[in-house]
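Sharing in case it's useful to others searching the archive later.

Someone asked me privately for the predicted structure of XRE family transcriptional regulator, so I'm posting the question and my answer publicly. Question first, with the sequence:
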Amino acid sequence: MKLYRPLYGVEGVEFRMHRSTLHNSLYRADDEWLVNVQVYGISAPYTPVLHLRKVAGAELVSTYTQSFEKVWTEAVPIERKA
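And my answer, the predicted structure tokens:
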């Protein structure tokens, strides 16, 4: 979380904590996603990142969006520290 601290005051950027067990790191901007997939035995900075965009007829972005929204609604906003 220290690495994200400079973004805490940026308009439109929000952070929340959750207790869900997730197997990917998800980063969302509008209808585009960056998905850092976990690979057993490999540190996250060295694993693939998928850049996903919403495309007519495709369901992958919708699936990630639905999953994200379920976790996000139950997550607790992180207090900004001065």
